[in-house]
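Quick start: what a row looks like.
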Amino acid sequence: MKPLKYLAEKKDNFKVIRASQMKEDLKNLPPGRYEITIKKEHRKASKEQFSYLYSVVYPIFLVAAYDAGYTTDEFKDIDELDVWCKLQFANRPIMNRETGEVINVPGRKSSFSTVEQIAYCNKLRDYASEYFGVYIPDPDPLWKLDKEVTL
């Protein structure tokens, strides 16, 4: 059975979005025991966050890696750097069922929440600072104002 998922908002009261659909779905369930879980929803990482990652963090990180002795055999481009960074800083353990060995596979940035994306970028910035001695600037806090300027 596919899990039922609904969004809700809590301001003064708890309000289920599309409550009528939820009531209908619950009414149509067969008799039995069910587990109900409520967890805080986090928005997916934004386009602006990925723009910052690919236009600021990764390019500076790549140049710093080259300056520290990494070669184009290790990182040909930002795509290869992306895979390496995900494996280092956003991996998840998976067990090989045949051998029992636990291996790490890169996580998927597309499934990151906004908070996870911020943490990922901060890990990259901290690593670059500690191991390469390079400062990667914070995202521009005034980016919205920059976009609104018209000439």
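That is the whole record. The mean pLDDT is 85. Helices lie at 19-27, 47-67, 78-89, 114-132, 143-148.
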